[in-house]
Write a structure and sequence with these properties.
- This protein is of the alpha/beta class.
- The chain has two domains: 303 residues, Rossmann fold (3-Layer(aba) Sandwich), CATH 3.40.50; 292 residues, Rhopdopsin 7-helix transmembrane proteins, CATH 1.20.1070.
- It has 20 helices and ten strands.
- Strands 1-2-4-3-5-6-7-10 form an eight-stranded mixed β-sheet. Strands 8-9 form a two-stranded antiparallel ribbon.
- It is elongated, with a radius of gyration of 36 Å.
- The two termini are 55 Å apart.
């Protein structure tokens, strides 16, 4: 015979039945794929989401009619739920030292690990989310305490003032004041390495963290942030019909998740719009009715990656609803237009993203804010690759420009002296001084080496661009994008070609003739019996004549081969480049929804013209010297043929650099800017399209 339940047991059983019944009533099946990789997470979410819906979502939407009461209840319920997590943090009280402080008039809470005293030496600045209207350092205390413990680093959480009591830009300025305080006093007060400061923000906090990182870079504030970590950031109010917004309306409406209506409402409160007006404008804003028609092209330009997301990031291949019909609202347009395009309010609208700190962007698959985080990440990723390619290309183009300028300087120098001495009879021109003789010899050596270096750098530039286009996602190929790799290529080629030239020039030396140089009797401009020192570059008499001829033959052969290789390979690389560029164009046409045919035609023409330039400037002289090495070595062939070939070679050598330099100068703006800056004729334009110096993207 079973014993009757005690009073406590009866109450417990009744409570379990009631709780289970409530959960059963509140239960709503989550969409397919939701937490599909973790059954535990899915079970926890099934239990936690109904509780959140019962205590926060339903009361704020159905029990309170005024916006003031809705915000009051939202803050109360979320803060209460957050406090229920407090007892778990008692376990960390001996490992993390927590202090409240005021920095530049802003309340902050600091977390300092006790066991391992700031092992990293840096600091993490955390800015909490909550739609600019909800949240506090207390609500996020469990997370920030855990961050300090797990990362063994100093963490500060900023308790900025909330809207609607405080509106843009004062909320942002609160965060900036706290950040400035840390950089001004962190080293002295907390022993922080100011070069290791990371800023972190989630949701609306991600917005504030993004803007602070952008503004510090725009103002060139030192020291710079080491990195920015953006967790499902809220970045814009110009398009609330992205894929993730439309999917929410279809599958997630009614769940206690961030919904488009709340995004629009809280964002407008942050903008300083009254609660009554914001509530009235929400239906228009969520259909993009607050956007003036003339502004749509500007939005399409900045948010061009929307088409890429539409094509590739669907939800388990489920159909996403089409865009809603726009409910245009002139009042909303007039009120919101002055502010929503401000990059300090909508950081996704900032066009210039250059030199931002290292970035980690985390988005959540079933989150309304997913797409704007992805768009920002894609923009940074594209710019990061372009910047890295640009850095590598800059180095190679600088090398090419140096080579061309040195080569031209040699002939400009010779032509200038000939022009200055044009009026003087040839027999009256004194010989070069010892210093000038060495100067001419050194200039000749560099001219000879740099000419080949230019051709090889051009070939390497084409190789790097081809490999990056074809295999740009591979880690080993990304090494080629680094400027350091290009510098290594440049100096390695320069060293190799200087060695080749020096071996040939090693058979010469500069000597002084004992008798000196005496002007002809017809040179009446000199006093009688005038004598000048006579220095000349001659073959070293200590080296056997046969050996000198052997060196000359081999040098002509090697020089010819080295000159022929780049122009022979360049056409094949050009074909590969054009093919890969067409693939890129087709991919962008599919994913981005735009055709870049004109750009493609321009780039193709440029590649073809550069190929012709390299072929014309390098191949003839290479073939000629290759041929001359055999004629000279075997000692056969009519003498006039050898002389004519020599004359042709000399002529081609003179116009060689001019052809290549002129082609590059007029066809490539990149080359043109580099050449001008090197000649100090023009300050070099910043060719960096902008980047985050290093980018990690995580999609969850």
């Amino acid at each position: 015979m079973t014993k009757p339940l005690s009073k406590f047991g009866s109450v417990t059983f009744a409570a379990c039945v009631v709780a289970f019944s409530i959960l059963l009533v509140l239960h709503k099946p989550l969409p397919p794929g939701f937490c599909e990789k973790s059954s535990i997470d899915r079970v926890i979410l099934h239990l936690f989401e109904p509780v959140l819906r019962a205590f926060y979502y339903y009361p704020s939407h159905y029990l309170f009619s005024t916006p003031e009461n809705q915000i009051w209840w939202t803050r109360l319920s979320l803060n209460t739920l957050a406090k229920t997590m407090g007892p778990f943090n008692l376990l960390d009280r001996h490992t993390v030292l927590v202090k409240d402080a005021t920095w530049n008039g802003v309340h902050v809470r600091t977390y300092e690990p006790r066991l391992v005293k700031n092992a990293t030496g840096g600091a993490a600045i955390f800015i909490h989310g909550g739609g600019f209207a909800v949240g506090s350092v207390e609500m996020y205390s469990g997370l920030t305490r855990r961050m300090a413990k797990e990362m063994n680093t100093f963490v500060v959480s900023i308790d900025y003032r909330l809207s609607p009591e405080t509106v843009f830009p004062d909320n942002l300025l609160d965060c900036e004041k706290a950040v400035d305080y840390l950089f001004e006093n962190g080293a002295q007060e907390f022993g922080i390495d100011l070069n290791k400061v990371v800023i972190i923000g989630d949701s609306a906090g991600g917005n504030l963290a993004t803007v602070i990182a952008q503004r510090r870079e725009e103002k060139s504030v030192e020291p710079k942030l080491a990195a920015q970590v953006l967790l499902y950031p809220l970045l814009q109010l110009v398009d609330l019909q992205m894929v993730s917004y439309r999917y929410f309306h279809k599958r997630l409406d009614g769940f206690a998740f961030v919904d488009p209506r709340s995004v629009a409402f809280y964002y407008m409160l942050y903008a300083g719009i009254s609660m009554e007006t914001a509530q009235k404008l929400v239906p228009s804003v969520i259909t993009n009715g607050h956007i003036k028609p003339e502004r749509r092209d500007e939005i399409d330009k900045v948010l061009s990656h929307r088409s890429f997301i539409e094509a590739t990031h669907l939800y388990n291949l489920s159909k996403v609803p089409d865009r809603w019909e726009v409910q245009e609202n002139r009042e909303a347009q007039e009120i919101l237009d002055p502010i929503i395009f401000n990059p300090d309010f909508s950081p996704l609208m900032r066009e210039n993203l250059k030199n931002l700190p290292k970035s980690l962007i985390v988005t959540c698959e079933y989150d309304t804010l997913r797409d704007e985080g992805m768009i920002y990440a894609e923009r940074l990723k594209v710019l990061c690759r372009k910047s890295m390619r640009g850095q590598a290309a800059n180095v190679l183009i600088i090398g090419i420009a140096i080579s061309d300028i040195v080569y031209l300087m040699y002939y400009v120098d010779g032509g200038t002296w000939e022009y200055l001495n044009k009026a003087i009879p040839q027999q009256c021109i004194p010989p070069n001084s010892q210093i000038f003789a060495y100067y001419s010899w050194i200039l000749f050596i560099f001219k000879d080496a740099f000419r080949r270096v230019s051709a090889w750098l051009g070939m390497f530039l084409a190789i790097i661009r081809y490999l990056i286009l074809k295999y740009g996602t591979r880690t080993k190929i990304r090494v080629l994008m680094k400027a350091g790799t290009s510098w290594k290529v440049f100096f390695s080629l320069l060293f190799f070609h200087l060695v080749v030239t020096m071996i040939n020039q090693g058979r010469y030396l500069i000597i002084e003739y004992p008798k000196g140089w005496k002007p002809d009797k017809s040179c009446t401009m000199y006093p009688p019996n005038t004598t000048f020192p006579y220095f000349a570059r001659v073959q070293n008499p200590a080296i056997d004549v046969f050996f000198q001829e052997h060196i000359s033959e081999k040098y002509l052969l090697i020089d010819g081969i080295l000159k022929c290789i780049p122009p022979i390979l360049y056409p094949f690389l050009a074909v590969g480049l054009v093919i890969e560029l067409k693939k890129v164009r087709e991919g962008r046409k599919i994913l981005m929804g735009r055709d870049e045919e004109n750009d493609m035609i321009h780039v193709t023409r440029l590649v073809i013209c550069m190929t012709i330039a390299y072929f014309l400037s390098e191949t003839p002289v290479g073939v000629s010297q290759f041929y001359m090495s055999f004629i000279q070595g075997e000692g056969f062939g009519p003498l006039f043929l050898l002389n004519n070939i020599t004359i042709i070679c000399v002529t081609i050598l003179i116009i060689n650099s001019s052809i290549h330099c002129v082609f590059c100068f007029f066809l490539s703006s990149h080359y043109r800017d580099t050449a001008w800056s090197m000649l100090c004729c023009k300050k070099r334009r910043d060719s960096s399209v902008g980047s985050s110096r290093n980018l990690s993207i995580s999609y969850r």
